[in-house]
């Protein structure tokens, strides 16, 4: 996949705030149009390096789609645990990249399922499952 750091000069905005060398990161050039691609690129590369056979995450959107895209490019199976309330458009995007989408009745159920996948099936998890982030799946 192409490089992930794209910068755009913001001269007019920079001048207006007295910062003549102001730049913005241009995330829409990333393969899935998300800043999550930077993390997914590193995670999938590491997973391949250590010989992981399946990569997994808990997500309702961009993180799952991004991971699915990078896993597909790397030839790794990908499992995305999500909530049944997740956007149909996002889960469709994740599926189109070839990932297995596992919708659970409640987002809080993703964490123990992810932990079990790591423990019993050797999944390479890219999201926390022991102490989920504060932005936990609804």
In short:
Helices cover 39% and strands 17% of the residues. It has 138 residues and is α/β, with parallel strands linked by helices.
Q: How would you describe this protein?
A:
The protein is an alpha/beta fold and 138 residues long. 39% of the residues lie in helices and 17% in strands. It starts with 6 loop residues before the first strand and ends in a 13-residue tail after the last strand. The strands form 2 sheets. It has a 4-stranded parallel β-sheet with strand order 5-4-3-6, with helices on both faces. It has a two-stranded antiparallel sheet with strand order 1-2. Helix 4 links the parallel strand 4 and strand 5 (100-104). Helix 2 packs parallel to helix 3 and helix 3 (62-74) packs parallel to helix 4 (88-96).
């Amino acid at each position: 996949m192409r490089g992930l750091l794209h910068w755009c000069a913001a001269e007019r905005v920079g001048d207006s705030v007295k910062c003549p060398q102001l730049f913005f990161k241009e995330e829409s050039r990333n393969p899935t149009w998300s800043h999550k691609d930077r993390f997914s690129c590193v995670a999938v590369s590491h997973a391949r390096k250590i010989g992981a056979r399946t990569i997994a995450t808990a997500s309702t959107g961009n993180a799952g789609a991004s991971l699915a895209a990078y896993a597909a490019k790397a030839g790794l199976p990908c499992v995305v645990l999500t909530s049944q309330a997740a956007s149909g458009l996002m889960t469709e995007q994740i599926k189109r990249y070839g990932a297995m989408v596992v919708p659970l009745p409640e987002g809080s159920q993703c964490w123990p399922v992810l932990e079990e996948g790591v423990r019993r099936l050797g999944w390479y998890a890219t999201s926390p499952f022991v102490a989920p982030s504060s932005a936990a799946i609804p």
